[in-house]
Amino acid sequence: MKFPTTLIFGGTSDARQICQMMDVTGIDYCLSVATPAGVQQATGIRGEIITGRMEAEEMADYLKLREIKRVIDASHPYAERLSQNIFNTCQKLGIPLIRYIRPSDIDAVENPLIHKVATIKQACETAIRLGTRILLTTGSKQLVDYTEYLQGKTVLARVLPTAEVLKMCESCGLSVDQIFALKGPFSADFNRAFYQFCRAEVVITKESGEQGGFREKVEPCLSLGLPCVVLCRPEQQFEGEGIIKVNGLEEVKHLLAHFYQ
């Protein structure tokens, strides 16, 4: 059986759009996602979907077994460990890597209400000084860390509506009054009404770019006078032979049009 020779990592909306571009150009590929939620995010694509997290050794075995000739890392901007494993594995096996970089809006918004930090601990320490009811729009992956650092505060978590995520919220001690299971993207108007509804005093978010609705999350904070703590993206300086960096979906489109001819 002949397998696709291009493997894409990513359960994001960006990854799905890259898959759709490859569908249009007729390029065979497979998509690796970590969770069932990632499978749902990829609904409608033609490529094979592989589900489950891969550590470095397992990733190397898979790439060799499938005889992968090219890897596209379109994982979430904050998936540091995954991106590092992908980079190391491709370098070790000599497989060309296309590193997709989601455009950032972090420098587009400057305001005294915006507090930019580098770590989860710093985000929590800043939020504690600013209010008592703290809304997390950061997803569920590091929820354990946030609830640990924010002990004594009322933590409100907006998370994906999946059984796995809800179970995690409950294991962190969050009650039904603290869990808001919703699937984005959300408009600025929706977020404004939502912040008012849950009576948030501080919002913690990530530098998620246009695809993650960054401005739509920040602008309502400014209009409502709410402090917004932004966890900035980790710096990932991956340099090496066989690596191509692409910034945004337009660059991906141009690359696919020329690179795969």
From TrEMBL:
Region forming the signal peptide: none
Organism: Xenorhabdus innexi
Entry keyword annotation includes Kinase: no
Assigned keywords, A-Z: Cobalamin biosynthesis, Oxidoreductase
GO molecular function, one term: precorrin-6A reductase activity
Name of this chain's protein: Cobalt-precorrin-6A reductase
Pathway linked to the protein: Cofactor biosynthesis; adenosylcobalamin biosynthesis
Organism placement in taxonomy: Bacteria, Pseudomonadati, Pseudomonadota, Gammaproteobacteria, Enterobacterales
GO biological process, one term: cobalamin biosynthetic process
Keyword field contains Oxidoreductase: yes
